[in-house]
Each structure stands twice: as C-alpha cells, then as structure tokens.
C-alpha cells in the first residue's frame, strides 16, 4: 500500500499546534524488507530556545542539533539509552524546535514490526514508546535529516482522533520548570499510548 506524503506547508504551523495536528497522521517507513506504518497517537513538543528540556535550549548548536536549525519538516533522529528516537523538526529555519513522536498504533507491516521487535503479548505493545516505534518501523540514526515529505520516511494523512488530551512530558526530571509544561499530547483511550494516561490536563 502506498500513501501520499503531507505537503511541506503542514509543518509550518506553530510547534504546539503541530504536535496536536500530528495525532492521527500515518508515520511511514519504506525499507527493502517492506513498508511499515502506524497512526501517531502520542507526541511531545520541544520549543528549543526557551525550553530547558530541549536539546537546543538557549540556542545550543551542535552536530547533533544542527538539523533543528534548518527548515521544518525534516527528521531529527538521535540515540538515547541505546534507543533511536525520531522527531519532526519545526519552528522554521533558525528557530530550533521539534516534536517527538512517542507512540504509534500499528497499521501496516505488522508482521515486519514483530520480526524487528520480537514477540509481544499484544499488537498494541509494538510501538507504544519512542524507542519501540523506531525499532518496529526500521527507523535508524541514518534517517537523520531526511525530508518527511517523501519516501523512505514520511508522514501521510490518517484519521481524526476521537479526543485529544495533554499533560506533562515524560522522562525529563532535571529540566526545572520545563518538566511541568503540558506539552505531551495523546489520543484519549488509545491502548498504544506510552505514558501515564491519567497525567492529563483539560481535553484539547
């Protein structure tokens, strides 16, 4: 099955709006082994220059963060705790912001995902975390900087989430007041969401 990548203009919206708009979209990775895809069900926004939890806080510019200073709509991949994570660059050129894709609901290539992840008790566990989803889809650090508007790694239209809720981001205990910002967004009631489903603010 083939999908139509979203236009580059989709990524030009403000980062917090983009983090919400990504929910329900399809994240697709094409590889020689086949195509794997899933609906995005959880994201986290990182607004670099003023966000102590962001890699680009205070405009920190390194070889790793360089892609964040470029145009929106590119992949920012990096390794944390031996797991590859994938982000969507946002904020526009010179304004280093990004949205972390935290969880997917598997849609296509489920057998391929299982072969990469190993046996799981439920399909909902295949991509229910930022490291799980990259392994399941075959996303690697080599995808750093790829435009998300064309194969092999891209985002396509999907479905409309029934309800979106928000709450504090996960795993950033040493980021001062930034750890409490309600910049994690997820589809309410979806079993593929990675983090605590009760840590929520008002529906959005």
Automatic annotation (TrEMBL):
Any idea what this protein is called?
Putative 3-methyladenine DNA glycosylase
Q: What is its EC number?
A: 3.2.2.-
Do the record's keywords include DNA damage? yes
Of which family is this protein a member?
Answer: Belongs to the DNA glycosylase MPG family.
Q: What GO annotations for molecular function exist for this entry?
A: hydrolase activity, acting on glycosyl bonds
- Name the keywords, alphabetized: DNA damage, DNA repair, Glycosidase, Hydrolase
Q: Specify whether Hydrolase is a keyword of the entry.
A: yes
Task: Give the species this sequence originates from.
Answer: Paenibacillus xanthanilyticus
Family matches, as InterPro entries: Formyl_transferase-like_C_sf, MPG, MPG_sf
Highest taxon of the source?
Answer: Bacteria
């Amino acid at each position: 099955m083939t999908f139509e990548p979203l236009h580059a203009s989709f990524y030009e919206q403000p980062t917090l709006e983009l983090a919400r708009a990504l929910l329900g979209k399809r994240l697709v990775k094409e590889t020689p082994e086949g195509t794997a895809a899933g609906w995005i069900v959880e994201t986290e926004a990182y607004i670099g220059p003023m966000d102590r939890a962001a890699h680009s806080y205070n405009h920190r510019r390194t070889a790793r963060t360089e892609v964040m200073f470029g145009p929106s709509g590119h992949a920012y991949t990096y390794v944390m705790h031996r797991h590859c994570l994938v982000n969507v660059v946002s904020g526009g050129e010179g304004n280093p912001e990004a949205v972390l894709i935290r969880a997917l609901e598997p849609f296509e290539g489920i057998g391929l995902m299982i072969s990469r992840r190993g046996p799981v008790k439920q399909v909902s566990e295949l991509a229910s975390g930022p490291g799980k989803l990259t392994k399941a889809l075959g996303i690697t650090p080599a995808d750093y900087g790829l435009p998300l508007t064309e194969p092999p790694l891209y985002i396509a239209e999907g479905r409309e989430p029934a309800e979106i809720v928000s709450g504090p981001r996960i795993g950033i205990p040493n980021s001062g007041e930034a750890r409490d910002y309600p910049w994690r967004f997820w589809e309410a009631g979806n079993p593929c969401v990675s983090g605590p489903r009760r840590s929520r603010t008002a529906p959005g």
